[in-house]
Amino acid sequence: MLHFLRASTFALASLACVTIAPSFAPISESTALAVAPAPFPTWINGANCPTEPAFQIHQFDADTYILRQSMCTDFEGPFLYLFFGTSKVLLLDTGAVATPPVPVYATVKRVIDGWLVAHGQASIDLVVAHTHSHGDHVAGDAQFIGKPNTTVVGTSVAAVQTFFGFTNWPTQAVTYDLGNRVLDVLAIPGHHPAHLAFYDRNTRILQTGDTLYPGRLYISDFPAYVASIQRLVDFTALNPVNYVLGNHIEMQNVAGQQFPLGSKFHPNEHVLQLRRKQLLELLNGVLGMQAAPHQEVHDDFIIYPI
Ligand SMILES: [Zn+2]
Ligand SMILES: [Zn+2]
Fold first, then answer.
1. Does the residue 30 lie in any domain?
2. Is residue 55 within 8 Å of residue 69, measured between CB atoms?
């Protein structure tokens, strides 16, 4: 726990000289949680590489953590998520390629050890799964293989289907229980064939990986992507969402402005958190270009067929 606190303090201290607009968007009254989560932090943004940690650890609430990998280690600067239940903790993604490898296992273990102390629990099973298997989200997998109480889920469509129990891919939504914490898991191919979305009923976070985030939404299978976004819209019509959280930030905090591909410093980044509003805007955007998919710049994201 002590080590964990030191790491958090270090991450925050390194931001002292960075000026970025406040990144907290209040929860609307209609969807407010009984216990409000901590505000989102100012994320590390590559402004001070000599002091920036490899990962910034943000405690969203008592059982939810968001980690950001430093852009000093890899320009992708991906976000990783930890959802704790009483019997299992789910890690979504293991980070981007970096040389030497970033200490993702050590960082995650520090968070888990701190959580166990805080909850008076001796152990918990770690399940390492992925939003999808592009290199910037699986690079740290090897660090987890063979570790105690740890399962690393395969990344192929078949492996994902088997592990989570999909029998009707991709239209079926399945549930995954971490122990007093149920996640709904949706198949959302389009950016990648095995892409998943995770909806946490406790926090009402919808984790959308590389399918929707404030940045360039690369689409490799356009019809599949449109169908996936439609399923997310339909799902969230029935399941209230507080935050739509993805894997990267590539937009600036000026409407429609992006950072150049490969940028390792993001002054004045867009906030991480999106809302269902942006999901609806994305659906309208892709439905409107089905006959001729093309790049289209929106305030908070860019539709980017490839
Ligand atoms: Zn990707
Ligand atoms: Zn990515």
1. no
2. yes
pLDDT value at residue 39: 83
Distance from the alpha carbon of residue 180 to the mean position of ligand 2, in angstroms: 30
Q: What separation in Å is there between the alpha carbon of 209 and the centre of ligand 1?
A: 8
Give the pLDDT confidence score for residue 11 in this predicted structure.
37
Here the CATH number for the domain that contains residue 292 is 3.60.15.10
Residue 260 in domain? yes
CA 69–ligand 2 middle distance (angstroms): 12
pTM of the model: 0.88
Instruction: For the chain, list the strands marked E by DSSP.
Output: 55-61, 64-69, 79-84, 88-92, 125-129, 150-152, 173-177, 182-187, 196-200, 205-209, 216-219, 243-246, 296-297, 302-305
- Please determine, for residue 211, whether its predicted confidence score (pLDDT) is greater than 70: yes
Count of structural domains, the chain = 1
Per-residue pLDDT reduced to its tens digit, 177-200: 999 999 999 999 999 999 999 999
**Dist. CA 131 → ligand 2 center (Å):** 9
- The rounded mean pLDDT for the chain is 90
Distance 40 CA to ligand 1 centre (A): 23
Cα-to-centroid distance, 220 and ligand 1 (Å): 10
| Range(s) of the domain holding residue 181 | 2-22+38-305
